[in-house]
Amino acid sequence: MGAYCSIAVDSNNKAHISYTDLSNHDLKYATNAAGPWDVTVVDSAGNIGDYNDIAVDSANKAHICYS
Q1: Which strands, in side-by-side order, build the sheet including 26-31?
Q2: What gap in Å lies between CA 33 and CA 65, rounded to an integer?
Q3: How many whole angstroms separate alpha carbon 63 and alpha carbon 52?
Q4: Could you give the 3-state DSSP secondary structure of residue 53?
Q5: 21 - beta bridge partners?
């Protein structure tokens, strides 16, 4: 289950989402920028990611900050 979400939309109207996977206590990143949804683990070092924020730059690259 995911929680503590942050969402940004790029200039192509594609979504970029950072969130905490409560089942595994991982910080994850999901996007549909390439078409189908793609989910990757950003950090899996324990109970992290409850405080996260995502932004997209002018090149449509996602940047995530978290603690």
Answers
A1: 2-9, 15-21, 26-31, 38-43
A2: 20
A3: 10
A4: strand
A5: 2, 26
pLDDT tens-digit series, residues 30-60: 999 999 999 999 999 988 888 999 999 999 9
Tokens 């192509």 sit on residue: 12
User: How many residues are recorded in the chain?
Assistant: 67
Token pair belonging to 1: 């289950």
Q: Give the whole-angstrom CA distance, residue 1 versus residue 63.
A: 22
Q: What is the pTM of this model?
A: 0.92
Higher pLDDT, 15 or 1: 15
Distance, in Å, from the CA atom of 38 to the CA atom of 16, rounded to the nearest integer, reads 10
Task: Please name the residue that has the structure tokens 């997209």.
Answer: 56
